[in-house]
């Protein structure tokens, strides 16, 4: 592999505008980009009235992870996912734990993007060699390297490997159309259903994320949602209830991960989320009718296991990202034979 190769690629999803400007249609920022400038993500640049992806294939991270780490608890549980990422992101989350790579293009606007060029076919070959069931586009926002994700995903699907996004959910429907049938699952980060809170935390709007949760679910993409419960921002009952109610209205079978916040990036002064707040979030999810609610970043907590919504017994026992025991056969609870929602269940 040529680690120094600059695989600049003509971007998808944009239209020309007057005065050599371009309108990017990749995400809901819909950036109007002047010649020689980049969009909010910092990785799509207008060169001579043509929009280019600067990070195509330039991987900053490649790892094999348990699918539970995404987190996806109901999509081929117990399997391994090849996780890949480039630098860049289209949001400015105050709590970002991967800010050194997600915000790199914004923090270093005059520098060439870092990363090792890896052609799409090599990613699929690596996934096959490592016996990965899925390829996860993660760590940063996969939308901002969509051209590359699309090319990898097409090849992966032909090889029988599923594709999953760990995403902020801010892509346009055109972006989902481009992925087509090659996107099989997504964990979507829903920080808040409140516009003002979402704006403070991310610089973006809540409604497009909520719309995409509905849209992906309607397309048959397996969806799980994650809410990082951040003290002083989205940890009150009203905020959590609004999120849980929205998810339940979309489908009570969408798993909701309520995760513990730890001080990071621009919120170093905040204390970690109290365990009581996560327990309360779990209660609120139950009250809203959600069947599968998980507390994250609380290793050993009882609520990281899957409980059968029919008989109340444990269907999948977990410790962190490790599965200890499974009581599911043919997609049904072995205790009572009730159906457990998910894809690729035993």
Percentage of residues in DSSP E strands: 15-25%
- Global shape: globular
Overall pLDDT confidence: 96
**What composes the largest sheet?**
8 strands, mixed
Largest beta sheet: strand ordering:
8-9-11-12-13-14-15-16
Helicity, as a percent range: 10-25%
Q: Which structural category fits the helices and strands? A: alpha/beta
Q: How many DSSP H or I helices?
A: 9
Order of helices and strands: EEEEEEEEEHHEHEHEHEHHEHEHEEEEEE
**Count of distinct strands:** 21
Unreliable spans are none
Over the alpha carbons, how many angstroms does the gyration radius reach?
20 Å
Distance between the termini: 38 Å
What does this structure look like?
The chain has 346 residues and is of the alpha/beta class. The chain has a domain at 9-53. Helix content is 25%, strand content 24%. The strands form 6 sheets. The protein has an 8-stranded mixed β-sheet. Strands 1-6-5 form a 3-stranded antiparallel β-sheet, with no helix packed on it. A 3-stranded antiparallel β-sheet has the order 2-3-4, with no helix packed on it. Strand 20 (328-329) and strand 21 (332-333) form a beta hairpin. It starts with 8 loop residues before the first strand and ends in a 13-residue tail after the last strand. The mean pLDDT is 96.
């Amino acid at each position: 592999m040529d680690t120094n190769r600059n695989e600049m690629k003509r971007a998808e999803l944009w239209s020309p505008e007057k005065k050599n400007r371009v309108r990017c249609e990749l995400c809901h920022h819909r950036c109007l980009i002047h010649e020689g400038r980049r969009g909010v993500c910092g990785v799509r640049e207008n060169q001579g009235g043509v929009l280019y992806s600067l990070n195509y294939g330039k991987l900053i991270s490649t790892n094999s992870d348990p699918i539970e780490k995404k987190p996806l608890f109901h999509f081929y549980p117990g399997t391994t996912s090849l996780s890949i990422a480039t630098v860049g992101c289209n949001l400015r989350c105050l709590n970002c734990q991967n800010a050194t790579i997600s915000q790199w293009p914004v923090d270093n606007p005059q520098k060439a993007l870092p990363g090792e060029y890896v052609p799409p076919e090599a990613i699929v070959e690596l996934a096959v060699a490592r016996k990965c069931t899925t390829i996860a586009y993660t760590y940063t926002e996969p939308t901002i390297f969509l051209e590359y994700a699309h090319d990898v995903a097409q090849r992966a699907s032909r090889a029988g490997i599923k594709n999953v996004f760990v995403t902020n959910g801010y892509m346009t429907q055109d972006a989902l159309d481009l992925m087509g049938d090659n996107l099989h699952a997504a964990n979507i980060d829903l920080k808040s259903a409140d516009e003002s809170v979402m704006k403070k935390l991310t610089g973006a709007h809540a409604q497009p994320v909520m719309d995409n949760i509905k849209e992906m679910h309607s397309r048959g993409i397996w969806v799980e949602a994650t809410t990082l419960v951040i003290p002083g921002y989205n940890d009150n009952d009203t905020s959590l209830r609004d999120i849980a109610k929205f998810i339940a209205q979309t489908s009570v079978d969408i798993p909701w991960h309520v995760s513990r916040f730890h001080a990071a990036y621009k919120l170093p002064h905040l204390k970690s989320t109290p365990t009581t707040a996560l327990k309360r979030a779990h209660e609120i999810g139950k009250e809203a009718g959600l069947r599968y609610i998980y507390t994250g970043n609380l290793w050993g907590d009882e609520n990281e296991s899957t409980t059968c919504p029919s008989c109340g017994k444990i269907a999948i026992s977990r410790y962190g990202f490790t599965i200890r025991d499974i009581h599911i056969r043919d997609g049904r609870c072995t205790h009572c034979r009730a159906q457990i929602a998910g894809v690729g269940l035993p």
